[in-house]
Amino acid sequence: MPGMRVGLFVTCLVDMMRPRIGFAALKLLERAGCEVVVPSTQTCCGQPGYNSGDRTAALALARKVLAEFEACDYVVAPSGSCAGMIRAHYPDLFSDQPAELERINRLCAKTYELTDFLLNVAKIEGIDARFDGAITYHDSCSGLRELGVKAQPRALLAKVAGLKLVEMNEAEACCGFGGMFAVKFGDVSTRIADNKCENAIATGADAIVLGDLGCMLNIEGRLRRKGDNKTQVLHVAEVLAGPDLP
């Protein structure tokens, strides 16, 4: 996308827990020819407040996102959850704010999950990466159900040299995280996570790959608690960008 200014919405979870995902996304966007802007003041998209019923806090954060990214040609996030919050839920947040709703709708229209943007907007043809092993892919709920992210990561992973994709049973089933769901319903969340881990391990894959860090932390945390220190849990951007990351 030569000449296109792409705002990278890093997400607060990536910033705090695994910054290398943000660097991987940056690397991929720059490889695609984008001029990448990373507003230094960015924080949260407002999803935790919105999901908890705190519309006031969510609205304040949404206005902050609008101010930081409105001038960009596109907004890209390595998270179906955060991109889904903007595209699917910001219009509801601003439904009684007619003066801002038009601006929000324009922001929503140019906001994309990373793999969707790379495949369908940037239209990249090749991936300069290698992964010698088998992976299985978990479809995170928000990206799949709010944004239709399903084929996009698989199409990009198919371009990675040495990589073999082995589909798990119930790849589209929830991992049990669900934000506050994991806190409010811990026992149910744990059972759902166990089911996901069992399905993934049954494939014999070397790594579980996915597109949302919340799901990654939940799945990897459960694997390690069950004594599995071998299976890797990787963000799709880490695989696509290759090993040379901070």
Structure description:
The protein is α/β, with parallel strands linked by helices and 246 residues long. The protein has two domains: 5-120, Rossmann fold (3-Layer(aba) Sandwich), CATH 3.40.50; 130-241, Rossmann fold, CATH 3.40.50.11810. Helix content is 51%, strand content 14%. It has 13 helices and eight strands. It has helices spanning 12-17, 19-31, 47-51, 55-69, 80-93, 98-109, 114-120, 141-147, 151-157, 181-184, 186-201, 213-225, 236-241, and strands spanning 5-8, 35-37, 74-77, 111-113, 130-137, 161-165, 207-210, 232-235. The strands form two sheets. Strands 2-1-3-4 form a four-stranded parallel β-sheet, with helices on both faces. It has a four-stranded parallel β-sheet with strand order 6-5-7-8, sandwiched between helices. Helix 5 crosses helix 8 (141-147), helix 7 crosses helix 9 (151-157) and helix 11 (186-201) packs across helix 12. The longest helix has 16 residues, at 186-201. The chain is globular.
Summarize the structure.
By secondary structure, the chain is of the alpha/beta class. The chain has helices at 12-17, 19-31, 47-51, 55-69, 80-93, 98-109, 114-120, 141-147, 151-157, 181-184, 186-201, 213-225, 236-241, and strands at residues 5-8, 35-37, 74-77, 111-113, 130-137, 161-165, 207-210, 232-235.
